[in-house]
Amino acid sequence: xxxxxxxxxxxxxxxxxxxxxxxxxxxxxxxxxxxxxxxxxxxxxxxxxxxxxxxxxxxxxxxxxxxxxxxxxxxxxxxxxxxxxxxxxxxxxxxxxxxxxxxxxxxxxxxxxxxxxxxxxxxxxxxxxxxxxxxxxxxxxxxxxxxxxxxxxxxxxxxxxxxxxxxxxxxxxxxxxxxxxxxxxxxxxxxxxxxxxxxxxxxxxxxxxxxxxxxxxxxxxxxxxxxxxxxxxxxxxxxxxxxxxxxxxxxxxxxxxxxxxxxxxxxxxxxxxxxxxxxxxxxxxxxxxxxxxxxxxxxxxxxxxxxxxxxxxxxxxxxxxxxxxxxxxxxxxx
Length: 334
Prior knowledge:
The protein is of the alpha/beta class. It is 34% helix and 22% strand.
């Protein structure tokens, strides 16, 4: 069976309950997650063997975060070092009040990783897929260089490589812009998840006002010829409480569109993109020649994630397939 490796930071998430604001709350709901960890946990729940590379402190929070991953079936390979687990605070939005994220991750254990520490050759033994996101190289130049080391080895070994651009402007604060770092890393990738608005800011590729998504994605493929497939999620009529969600898939010849789902009551939108990423990886493994099937599975996965508290999508394969096949709408499973 295909084995996936993901690389990134796991964070402690603290959220005020009952849609309270950070300035109001006297308590927090606690979760662990963040992009690459969320993808790893989702894939493990789908039955895919997954190894997650990270770093955590030698304390109860570090051990608790790894225990959570193991409970999902993820194999964590964690460097135990540094003094703290990174934290982020997420304030749920409601109606027209948007959600809000406050990061507290400076000097985290993950940020203390150094080049040469990770034995990528050994880590990729028996692996077929490597997934990373733009969050890791946004944290420091050292982490960007570590990520490049992993990408070079994965590419040499013939692994399929996927990236979620995951552009977070507030994290790029070490003197480099995203479009100075990311193109050098994206060149190794086979599958890319990103939005057209990120073309110049992340990839350094200019677009014209009248360019369609298909035209923009075609420019990306011309610039990065290793890319075989590009996917992107779409939100329509969006506020913090309800969205319509769908997705598109471009393989260089076909521009495919998924079903559109109306999420009328959002429980938690954090991790929806990671649920989609895990869904498209699983879909391409399950239906490598049927990109429409893979896209529909991923779109249904992201839809269901909106109904689940915490960062990680807890939906099972059979639940996602049921939604793809039109079995949803709040029916009680008996």
